[in-house]
Amino acid sequence: MLVSPRQYGWEQPYIVDCIRRYPRLFVGHGLIDPHDPDNAKVLEREVRRNGLAGMRLSPIYHPKNSG
Fold first, then answer.
1. Between β-strands 2-3 and 54-57, what pairing exists: parallel, antiparallel or unpaired?
2. Which stretches in the chain have pLDDT values below 50?
3. Among residues 14, 42, 8, 11, which one has the least CA distance to residue 26?
């Protein structure tokens, strides 16, 4: 299980690349913006198009007013 670290923001290109190259070896887990009104679409995209196995929400680390 590869887990996207929060300090890289909402994109997980390294993890997506790894699971595409080695789909029998890795599964990926990304990070989604809990304040994004389109997060359901983002979740669907990351699972369907990028092959991630799941996503996590971290609102405590990304408060809505932090920019």
1. unpaired
2. none
3. 14
